[in-house]
Specification:
This protein is an alpha/beta fold. It contains 6 helices and 9 strands. Strand 8 and strand 9 form a beta hairpin.
Length: about 200
């Protein structure tokens, strides 16, 4: 039987933003812990963060089985001993992982705007279940905000997303915060990022 194709896929956006995100993670996280990544995609982020935060153990996941080979390839290329084999995880599932799994960080980038709105509530409720008592959920991506002008780039991006799928689109930060509140989470920090993105840190209320 031929070996599975473990070729690393490449996302230009993930390559551009990985260092800026890591710099914020280094500010907000303790020296060591356990991290769960939701929607790992190509695997570029988890490989970069695992190298930059070597005292952390990382569990990448993705809803698409086809993504696991790319994640494994990035991890293997970097020779990272602190990354566990990637798992298939759908945030809409009633149980993500075995019930006693707890994480100091749950990280999710660029998922909320390319999935139906119901995934936001599912992400927040799942994070509330699987976060350690002092753990944090970090979400990254473009957001709309009340009282903050939206860039032309994000307006165009939002229109293109809705043209692809009416259930997609850039989410209002305030709506995301409302879903977080229903799950018992609150916004702890807002970090403005390059290219009109935000990194948001959520913790248990």
């Amino acid at each position: 039987m031929p070996a599975p194709n473990l070729s690393p896929h490449f996302s230009p956006a993930a390559d551009r933003n990985k260092q800026a995100i890591l710099e914020v993670l280094l500010q907000v996280l303790p020296e060591q812990g356990k991290a769960l990544e939701i929607a790992s995609g190509t695997g570029q982020h988890v490989a970069w963060f695992a190298a930059g935060l070597p005292q952390w153990t990382w569990q990448p996941t993705d809803a698409m089985q086809a993504s696991l080979g790319s994640i494994a390839a990035w991890v293997a290329e970097q020779g990272l001993p602190n990354v566990r084999p990637a798992l298939v995880l759908d945030v809409m599932a009633p149980e993500w992982l075995p019930g006693d799994a707890r994480f100091d960080l749950i990280y999710c980038a660029n998922m909320l705007h390319i999935s139906p709105w119901a995934t936001c509530a599912a992400l927040m409720q799942g994070a509330a279940r699987y976060l350690a008592p002092d753990g944090v959920l970090v979400t990254y991506g473009p957001y709309l905000e009340d009282g903050v002008p939206t860039s032309e780039g994000n307006l165009s991006f939002n229109q293109s997303l809705r043209a692809q799928d009416p259930s997609w689109g850039i989410r209002r930060r305030e709506d995301v915060a409302q879903e977080a509140g229903r799950a018992g989470l609150r916004l702890l920090a807002r970090h403005a990022m390059p290219a009109n993105n935000l990194l948001l840190v959520w913790g248990k209320a």
